[in-house]
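#lab-general

N.A. 3:47 PM
ok so I finally got the sequence cleaned up, no stray characters, all 252 residues accounted for. can someone with queue access submit it? mine expired

B.Y. 3:52 PM
send it over

N.A. 3:53 PM
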Amino acid sequence: MKSLKRRKLQIKAFHIERVVSSETTSISGNTLSLRAGMNNPEISQLKYVKELRIELIKPNERDKFVNSIVDFIPISTKVLGQMGEGITHTLTGVVVMLTGIDEDGVQAAEFGSSEGILSEQVVFGRAGTPRANDLIIHVDITLALGGTKVREGIDQCHETCDYLVQQIRDVLKKLNGRNCTDKCEFFDKIRPGGKKVVILKQVAGQGAMYDTRLFSKEPSGFSGGKSIIDLGNMPILITPNEYRDGAIRAMH
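B.Y. 4:20 PM
back already:
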């Protein structure tokens, strides 16, 4: 018997080749413009975040020191539908890197920090890491004393970074999908009489940098999501398309 197609997920990619500073955040052709002063969000209400720096790292500039890597974050946004269905816009050629340290020079870490020369600390071109030619928007956060060793401090790193990425998502969301550089379609399928396959994935759920967020408002986002810790580290059922769409955010 033929398979039955259910929900469809359409991911439209827009390739970025240049990132520049500008008065407003915008995307034009292959250029992403970031608003000048973008590195000054309203962070005064956050207990641990003390300082924020943003820089662009080009592919030939990776032989430089960076603080401990907290996360690599793709830039994607929902345009239509819920997580796992509808339309998602995503940027290729650029990725966000979040790093962290505290005021006393203690690096963000759980079982070992990753500060050092970027080109030596990361294996590029793997699942979860930038490709060899990707531009990297580096978000470096300094936390209050002790902030790199507690869950709340690391969560505030992610919260601050997510605030910045959302400014790009809001622009990406409004792009005309007809102008995408690539498009993929995925279907959740039912195969009557077929084998029932379940893939079990054990995710991090201990605290601080060893955490996983599920079903945030945006693909691979932070805001609105639930920590697997707060869910009691219990099994969560997700569809293949929800997984493809960024329902899981590995926060380490």
